């Protein structure tokens, strides 16, 4: 977990069990003016969210397929927490885009982003419209 303490920068919480992917996204977000707190599992993010005493994230990025709770389960649990009930959330996955979008909409997420070569520009556009 990495958190740069700068309250002027938007904070993104990221849960992804793929360490390389999480690091690439974290570095990219940091370079583009976001603080990042990252977790290797959805369970870790959920535990942090339930115990949060500092800054709430401006957005949450959830990998869909993770050990323990998957991204959809984590999202449902986050929505039960009053402080996270309206936090913009994007699912990120390598699953087929149509299936991902359908499941994300059904879950009430604000975005579904496919892990492909266009992820970072799509992520940038989503964050620009969200945060």
Automatic annotation (TrEMBL):
GO terms for biological process: phosphorelay signal transduction system. PANTHER family: RESPONSE REGULATORY DOMAIN-CONTAINING PROTEIN, STRESS RESPONSE REGULATOR PROTEIN 1. Residues 11-130 form the Response regulatory domain. This is Response regulatory domain-containing protein. The keyword Lyase does not apply. The keyword Phosphoprotein applies. It comes from uncultured Gemmatimonadota bacterium. Pfam families: Response_reg. The modification 4-aspartylphosphate is found at residue 63. InterPro entries: Bact_response_regulator (IPR050595), CheY-like_superfamily (IPR011006), Sig_transdc_resp-reg_receiver (IPR001789). Keywords: Phosphoprotein.
């Amino acid at each position: 977990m990495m958190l740069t303490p700068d309250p002027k920068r938007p904070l993104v919480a990221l849960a992804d069990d793929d360490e390389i992917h999480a690091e690439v996204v974290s570095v990219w977000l940091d370079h583009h003016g976001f603080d990042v707190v990252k977790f290797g599992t959805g369970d870790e993010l959920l535990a942090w969210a339930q115990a949060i005493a500092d800054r709430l994230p401006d957005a949450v990025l959830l990998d869909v397929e993770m050990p323990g709770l998957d991204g959809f389960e984590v999202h449902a649990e986050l929505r039960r927490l009053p402080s996270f009930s309206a936090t913009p959330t994007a699912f990120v996955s390598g699953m087929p885009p149509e299936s991902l979008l359908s499941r994300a909409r059904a879950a009430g997420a604000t975005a579904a982003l496919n892990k492909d070569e266009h992820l970072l520009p799509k992520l940038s556009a989503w964050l620009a419209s969200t945060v």
